[in-house]
Design a protein that fits this description.
The complex is a heterodimer of chains A (113) and B (112). With 113 residues, chain A is mainly beta. Chain A has no helices and eleven strands. Chain A is globular and about 35 Å long. Chain B has 112 residues and is an all-beta fold. Classes of the chains: A mainly beta (113), B mainly beta (112). Chain A binds chain B through residues 4, 31, 33, 35, 42-45, 48, 50, 55-56, 58, 88, 90, 92, 97-107, 109, and chain B through 2, 30-31, 33, 35, 40-45, 48, 50, 88, 90, 92, 96-105.
Chain lengths: 113, 112
């Protein structure tokens, strides 16, 4: 089975721009979660989607949004980028809920200059 | 905010020794999971222990859970250089379905 894939792997953007990150879950997995990892704040939950519905959202501003498609692929978007948005963005998928193990992708390293 | 705090923040041992890291959390949980992360890469799931379980084994890994103390420990026996990584606990907090909250992590260095 192919693992979770994330594209792009690396991204450099300028303050004020917007960015879209993509995540393809493991085949058959319906839950996709997104996390932001920074040295200062650690791993923080962004949101989780299941069957195209957002089930939970972390404590992030509205500039962070996401969606899930009918094939379970997910995208997250960050608008009006700030320097503090520089981070490793990780996507994880699981079969049903977070009571099951999460399979993580390699992440997208976003640098905002 | 972090639900889990891990201790120690960093641990350095020699190959063949055992490594123990601890995780404390604040609220009731459904389950607790441990993950490993090699430098700047994705996380790898190690083991999941449910709130009604006290101990679980997987290969060289042993996890315990004490819900009365809101704490868990991960023991890696006979460590290898390849075990060098950061280790995180993550909790599925009761009443907040579909949200995993990660601890601060323990950085383990295993030297030859």
């Amino acid at each position: 089975k192919a693992g979770v894939t994330q594209t792009p792997r690396y991204l450099i953007k300028t303050r004020g721009q917007q960015v879209t990150l993509s995540c393809s879950p493991i085949s058959g997995h319906r839950s996709v979660s997104w996390y932001q990892q920074t040295p200062g704040q650690g791993l923080q939950f962004l949101f989780e989607y299941f069957s195209e519905t957002q089930r939970n959202k972390g404590n992030f501003p509205g500039r962070f949004s996401g969606r899930q498609f009918s094939n379970s692929r997910s995208e997250m978007n960050v608008s009006t980028l700030e320097l503090g948005d520089s981070a490793l963005y990780l996507c994880a998928s699981s079969w049903a809920t977070l009571s099951y193990e999460q399979y993580f992708g390699p992440g997208t390293r976003l640098t905002v200059t | 905010s972090q639900q889990g705090e891990e201790d120690p923040q960093a641990l350095s041992i020699q190959e063949g020794e055992n490594a123990t890291m601890n995780c404390s959390y604040k609220t009731s949980i459904n389950n607790l999971q441990w993950y490993r992360q090699n430098s700047g890469r994705g996380l790898v799931h190690l083991i999941l222990i449910r709130s009604n379980e006290r101990e679980k084994h997987s290969g060289r890994l042993r996890v315990t859970l004490d819900t009365s103390k809101k704490s868990s420990s991960l023991l890696i026996t006979a460590s290898r250089a390849a075990d060098t990584a950061s280790y995180f606990c993550a909790t599925d907090v009761t009443g907040t379905a579909s949200k995993l909250t990660f601890g601060t992590g323990t950085r383990l260095q295993v030297t030859l």
